[in-house]
Design brief:
Distance between the termini of chain B: 27 Å
Helix content of chain B: 40-55%
Radius of gyration of chain B: 30 Å
Shape of chain A: elongated
Number of domains of chain B: 2
Oligomer: heterodimer
Number of helices of chain A: 13
Number of strands of chain B: 13
Distance between the termini of chain A: 29 Å
Structural class of chain A: alpha+beta
Strand content of chain B: 15-25%
Order of helices and strands of chain A: HHEHEEEHEHEEEHEEHEEHEHHHHH
Largest sheet of chain A: 7 strands, mixed
Helix content of chain A: 40-55%
Structural class of chain B: alpha+beta
Chain lengths: ~400, ~425
């Protein structure tokens, strides 16, 4: 296809040509960034979490008398373990993704200056099994370590801990964490086990570095434990949760008992991200539709204006496919200009967003992918008007409109 | 003349329905999307106490040790320690002042159909009610005497009143909180400041505190504290810190009726910090801030980033829609070159033609604006069904309604400028000849 006549004709219709280029460029820039944001949110929603997410239910008890915890918690747990289908039950202070961040800063030397902020969890006896923690190295807690470990000033009075793999790498890069010691305010703990990565209570609050930095302490029954973690087969979850709430409601008179499956808690945590994804998708789809209709409208007008021209070309020997190709090539040229401009614009918007918001740099491949999408969109929208143009009969040339 | 142009516009728009519908739809979609997000942004960044917020200030001081202090760079603490809060409260240097913090209380209703439940609460000194201009449906707040006497009195919200007492004048009734009997002294009327400016540590929006009790009483009874606790040095931690520990967990607000009073109060905070440093309690030189409500909200960046991003995105979308409309209008106006040529030949000036075409784009904008309004209402309805904490607040107000139409009209006139100018360049003779 000869390009020069197309360029010559575009030069005569500068304003409509520029409008199409601008429209494609803007749509491309917005599309790139929106799709990138969608990708980021979907990444967040899919964060792995090395606990038995599908099998866990959590029942929380608020307002029980903390002084009676030492006797109440074993009694409650005995009742919970008696529910058919419960394979493990334990008390805990908090759960991953429960939005109540509990962070403490640790150092790797007794007088260290650089502290690492880590999410802390306290587990009652059997907590490792109830959560379904995955041990990578070392061992879980021994029974006497549970009995010895209390809670004072937000700290564990025991001397052992489990760390997640990510936290171990953060604290002792390139070294084996097992047997190492962590310090804070004159207390120290020895790492007895390294476990697969468990999310923080509020990963968005902890930030990217602290997302998987978690440590676990053993704890004998204590008033700070508000959560009962129940593990069962996924199909038993709903029934187990119902029965557990009923049982605790009977045992803890006057306390507020609440419960949820862990899958439900995870869904709640990411509900905002999910609704943002839907909104971004909606905007993208509508924007592409508007752009497509705009191209259809302008090209139709163009075809209408050039009926006589097309007729003359047909009369002097151009075939239908020549005419079709003419409009397709023209759209391809405009699309290319728009896409190039759009990619520059998309990159600029991303730079601005990186400065003003917590947004990462867009990987380069988003640009060509959106470019191809805009090209395809352009070709699809030009098809109908171009076909109409190719159907202009040669006889038009002989009529004076 | 305007009426005539209006009539011409309607005729012309009717002639090519598909093109007109496309233009109206593009404007409506752009306006609908941007007005939905703009309304949410407007609601979230609004003034929680119009008329009052300018004279309410949040004093910040820095009682930490000298370690880690960078002069001019380190921000003072976001909350107060018990000791500083009490000192500043008792100094009574402002027109009004209140020291407060958030919590939750177990409510044990007498009425047996209701199970015990937890209610978010505020523990505050008496200045809270007059300073924030809290309206009362029944009764009133408590006074300094009740604060000093650690009295068992409570003020409740009207929703809470409906839930527990079934509405009506509940002053004088007994309310059981954390196992203790409290006397209800007041029921708050319709008051729900958004953002929840006086304590941003929990939810920033739509936080409904049902119960207010004196701070002194809450401390006597060891009521649960909810919110952020920030400790340093040998501060222990825990959710309800000891009164002498180096932890901040209280909010202190003051009312200062004139800028000169605000300046004097800041001076007082500097002197107080210097005095505490001399006493050895503060490790840092005076590091104070005195922000009013809107400055405090700005400083805390309460509006979620997602909402700003959505607004930006929606305006990007509006821009795409506008460029699209410019293109379609250009096509429409240029197709009528013949008609415009005739008008020119009959004596209409270029500016008359220009005005006629702008009226036409204005009509498109107006209809598009109405469509946009409809879409924005649907959009806001969708936003209200979202799980976000601010979602229930997303309602259109008269200001935003007006802005919708101005934006639609302005956008379509802007979109009409280039095509109208281009169409006015027709040479009448050429157009007449070729027809």
């Amino acid at each position: 296809m000869e390009i020069r006549p197309i360029l010559a004709s575009l030069r005569k219709h500068r304003i409509p040509a520029m409008l199409i280029v601008l429209e494609i460029a803007l749509a491309c820039a917005v599309l790139c960034n929106a799709v990138f944001m969608i990708g980021q949110r979907l990444d967040d929603i899919g964060w792995p979490n090395a606990i038995d997410e599908q099998g866990i239910s959590v029942v929380s008890v608020n307002g029980a008398d903390p002084k009676l915890a030492a006797s109440d918690i074993p009694r409650d747990l005995a009742a919970l373990r008696g529910i058919a289908g419960v394979t493990a039950a334990a008390a805990a202070t908090s759960m991953p993704l429960d939005r109540n961040p509990a962070l403490s800063s640790f150092t790797t030397t007794p007088d260290g200056k650089t502290t690492v902020n880590t999410s802390i969890y306290f587990l009652g006896s059997g907590g490792e099994q109830a959560l379904g923690l995955r041990l990578l190295e070392g061992r879980f807690f021994n029974a006497d370590e549970y009995a010895d470990s209390g809670f004072k000033d937000f700290n564990s009075t025991g001397h052992v801990m489990l760390v997640t793999q990510r936290d171990a790498q953060r604290l002792w890069p390139g070294q084996d964490a097992l047997g190492k010691t962590l310090y804070t305010n004159g207390n120290s703990w020895t790492v007895v086990g390294v476990i697969a990565d468990v999310l923080a209570q509020d990963p968005n609050f902890s930030g990217p570095g602290g997302r998987y930095s978690s440590v676990f302490f053993p704890l004998h029954p204590d008033g700070v434990m508000g959560d009962y973690v129940l593990r069962s087969a996924p199909q038993d979850r709903a029934r187990v949760l119902r029965e557990a709430r009923r049982a605790l409601g009977r045992l803890e008179v006057g306390a507020v008992v609440d419960g949820a499956t862990y899958a439900g808690m995870r869904g709640d945590y990411f509900a905002d991200a999910r609704s943002m994804v839907w909104m971004l998708l909606l905007v993208c789809v509508v924007m592409l539709a508007v752009t497509a209709f705009g191209i259809v409208g302008l090209t139709s007008f163009w075809v209408g204006q050039r009926r006589r021209q097309i007729g003359i070309r047909r009369a002097v020997g151009a075939t239908r496919s020549h005419i079709l190709q003419y409009f397709q090539t023209e759209n391809f040229l405009l699309g290319t200009a728009g896409v190039v401009l759009g990619m520059v614009l998309a990159f600029g918007i991303n730079l601005y967003l990186m400065q003003s918001y917590e947004i990462a740099r867009m990987p380069w491949y988003y640009l060509p992918v959106s470019a191809v999408a805009m090209w395809v969109l352009g070709q699809l929208s030009v098809l109908a008007p171009a076909l109409r143009a190719s159907n202009v009969p040669p006889v038009v040339a002989t009529r004076s409109v | 003349m305007f009426g005539y142009y209006f009539d011409l516009a309607l005729r012309s728009l009717k002639r090519n329905k598909a093109l007109t519908a496309l233009m109206v739809l593009a404007i409506a979609l752009g306006i609908g999307a941007s007005m939905t997000t703009l309304t949410v942004l407007h609601v979230l960044s609004g003034d929680p106490l119009p008329g009052r917020s300018g004279s309410l200030y949040y004093p910040q001081i820095d009682p930490r040790e000298s370690q880690g202090y960078l002069p001019g760079k380190t921000d003072p603490m976001d909350q107060m320690t018990w000791i500083d809060g009490m000192n500043l409260l008792q100094a009574k240097r402002a027109d009004q002042q209140a020291l407060m913090t958030g919590g939750s209380v177990a409510v044990q209703p007498d009425n047996s159909t209701l199970d015990p439940f937890y209610q978010t609460a505020r523990y505050t000194t008496s200045g809270f009610f007059p300073m924030f201009g809290v309206p009362f449906e029944y009764g009133h707040g408590w006074g300094d005497a009740e604060d000093d006497a650690h009295a068992r009195v409570a003020v409740i919200s009207s929703q809470f009143n409906d839930k527990v007492f079934g509405g009506g004048d509940s002053t004088g009734k007994t309310l059981r909180l954390d196992g203790e009997a409290f006397r209800v002294v007041g029921v708050i009327g319709d008051w729900n400041p958004n953002p929840h400016f006086y304590d941003l540590n929990r939810k920033s929006y739509n936080e409904n505190e049902g119960v207010f009790v004196p701070l002194s009483t809450s401390q006597d009874l060891g009521m649960i504290h909810d919110g952020s606790v920030n400790c340093w040095g040998n501060g222990g931690g825990g959710n309800t810190p000891d009164h002498n520990s180096p932890c901040v967990w209280l909010q202190f607000w003051v009312q200062l009726d004139s800028p000169s009073k605000a300046a004097a109060y800041k001076e007082f905070l500097v002197n107080y910090s210097a005095q505490q440093k001399a006493l050895g309690r503060f490790g840092r030189p005076p590091n104070v801030q005195l922000r009013n409500v809107m400055q405090w909200l700005d400083y805390n960046m309460v509006v979620p980033d997602d909402v700003r991003l959505q607004t930006g995105l929606a305006f990007g979308f509006l821009l795409v829609c506008l460029v699209n409309t410019v293109g379609l209008m250009l096509a429409k106006f240029l197709r009528r070159a013949g008609e415009l040529g005739v008008r020119r030949a009959l004596g209409a000036s270029r500016s008359a033609l220009f005005a006629q075409l702008l009226v036409e784009s204005g009509v498109v904008g107006l209809v598009g604006g109405m469509g946009g309004l409809l879409l924005a209402l649907i959009g806001l309805w969708l936003v209200r069904r979202q799980p976000a904490e601010y979602a229930p607040l997303a309602h259109l107000d008269p200001v935003m309604l007006l802005i919708t139409f101005l934006l639609a009209l302005g956008a379509s006139l802007l979109a009409g400028l280039l095509p109208a100018w281009r169409a006015c360049q027709v040479t009448p003779a050429l157009q007449l000849k070729s027809n």
